[in-house]
Amino acid sequence: MFNKKLIIPLIVILTVLGVFAGMKLQTAMSDDKVSDQVRKFSEVLNLTSRYYVDNVDTQKLTESAIKGMLEELDPHSIYISSDQLKRVNEEFQGSFEGIGVEFDVLNDTLTVVSPISGGPSEKLGILAGDKIVKIDDVSAIKITREDVPKKLRGQKGTKVKLSIVRYGMKESLEFTVTRDKIPLYSVDASFMMDTETGYVKVSRFAGTTYDEFMTAMNKLKSEGMKKVILDLRSNPGGYLDQAFKMASEFLPAGKKIVFTKSRIKEFEENYNSSGGRFTDIPLVVLVNEGSASASEIVAGAIQDWDRGLIVGETSFGKGLVQRQFDLSDGSALRVTTARYYTPSGRTIQKPYEGGKYKDPMRLDTLEGDNFSHIKDTKDTTRPLFKTFGGRNVFGGGGISPDYYVRLDTLTKYSVQLRRLNLIYEYTEKYMIQNRKNIEGKYKSYKEFASAFKVSEDMLSALIELGKSRSVVFDQIGYNIDRKFIETSIRAQIARDLWGNEGFYAVFMMSDEQVLKGLSLIDEASKLLR
């Protein structure tokens, strides 16, 4: 008989070997299945290339096949060409190389909307409203928006010659701009809304977002900030680590911010707060249906820990985690490897089938208080969860606000004015005649915001400009949207003089979601008790 002391270790060894062999066999079988499909695709591509009636672009066919394959998986597994990848990397690294202007094409003419602060164009004295009519002695009239970056961006240190027409000058101005690294900011604006409440607008989560955010918060704190509104509306997300760092600033150390689940265990992760400097400041977070991914991670953590109030509309519901794999030709593949969950266990991802989302499940059909998150008990599409303070919150995709506030839909008349960029065009002409007067009268955007009024003459001039561009005047639509039109003019003037901070400071004074958030900031402070 075998010694019992030998039998037990032998069984363990055989079991381990069996599991190992099973894993190897499963891997081999999986590899065989993949190899079979690769051979099949290769056969089809070769046959098509050899026998199709016309010449074929095999690269295009291969890329189309890859895209078609990924569309069967989910809405966010994607193929990125080498050219697209370069642009994406620039965007999320937080900088690019070029001349440093925000631009638009108005009436077939390339127009400087604003020189970027600290960029080479600003240093040379290029101004908002300048018309770029030639680039390197080649006419830029009728240039498309898509072609502008190809002409103006380029390697740091290279030069580009611009011919500019400026109002009030008979001859064009010639500039030779040396391209440089241009920062792309993700914190669009930060300012004090009143003596105690700060406002911070974050448009995306790029490589520099956390540093920008902390700079803004520290600036506002030095100005007396004791409460804050964090605006994440229309923020599509970006880098998870930047969202994690931002959320950490509001949550005590050790509090879970987000976790992931995956079929592959090594892709599962937990992110806990490292503690921050603003854990005791009353907080309101604004979201809408354009707030996605990293934005939802921040909002979900704040809501689950009853750390602040969420105001606005149900967020997008993008809770799939992608990993990027670089391919040999400089392109890349982003494949979904896990799902995001809020600290209470709610899935952020809304339902989908293949590459398409199912019909949206919205609970914000009525405006108002939804602090208790009460729903029809027959509704099984949105499961209820509990915050760590005991409140009900909805799962099933997206972050549902504690207070719903819908923004009014613009009428067709205002949509046409915006589509043709006529409010900007009118304001540009107005500022040519009135810039010095406004600069002399108002020393700051705060003075301007509280005192400047849009006159009837100004509104009439905008209406006439619209008519000249075939926008038929609609009295009913105009009456409905008048407040929006007036605010848009005022905000555009403020942007011209004080940049994005001036623009947002003026525009937010008429933004119903922001005003609601401001009215609830003291309510948010009760959650800290």
Describe the protein's architecture and organization:
The protein has 529 residues and is of the alpha+beta class. It folds into four domains: 31-50 and 57-72, no CATH class; 95-183, Roll (Pdz3 Domain), CATH 2.30.42.10; 187-353 and 366-407, 2-enoyl-CoA Hydratase, Chain A, domain 1, CATH 3.90.226.10; 412-510, no CATH class. The protein contains 14 helices and 24 strands. The chain has helices at residues 4-51, 58-71, 82-93, 120-124, 148-152, 209-222, 240-248, 294-304, 412-419, 422-441, 445-451, 456-468, 475-507, 512-526; strands spanning 78-80, 95-98, 101-106, 109-115, 131-135, 138-139, 159-165, 173-178, 180-183, 187-192, 197-202, 227-231, 256-261, 270-272, 283-287, 309-312, 320-326, 332-341, 352-353, 356-357, 368-369, 384-386, 392-394, 403-404. The strands form six sheets. It has a seven-stranded mixed beta sheet with strand order 10-11-12-15-16-24-21, with helices on both faces. It starts with a helix and ends with a helix.
